[in-house]
Amino acid sequence: MKKIGCYIKLGTMLQGVITIITLGNGYQIAQWIANKLGYEDCGCADRENFLNGLNCRETRILNKKIKEEERLYKKKVEELRKKDKFTYKHQ
Q: What is the residue range of 26's domain?
C-alpha cells in the first residue's frame, strides 16, 4: 500500500500554483529567463521530479534508477566516440 506522500506530490502542486499565478505562461517565462541567463533549459521538469520525490520513497528510487541509466548511456556513447571518431565527429 502506498503512503499518503506518494499521492500528495509537491512538485505537481507547485507547478499548478505557478500555472495559476502566471495565467498558464509559467514555462514560457522560465524558459525566457533561462535563455537570457545563458542556459539551454529552465529545469522545470527536474525541479518537479525532485519535489515529487521528497515525500515518496518509490519515486526517489525510480529517479535514481533513471539517473544511473542516463549515466551509463552517456558513458557508452563516449566509448563509441573514442572507438570510431569519424562516425561521431559531428555529433
A: 4-66
Residues of the chain with pLDDT under 50: none
State pTM to two decimals.
0.59
Q: 9-14: which pairs have CB atoms within 8 A and are 24 or more residues apart?
A: 9/51, 9/52, 9/55, 9/56, 10/51, 10/52, 10/54, 10/55, 11/47, 11/48, 11/49, 11/50, 11/51, 11/52, 12/48, 12/52, 14/47, 14/48, 14/51
In a domain, 86, yes or no: no
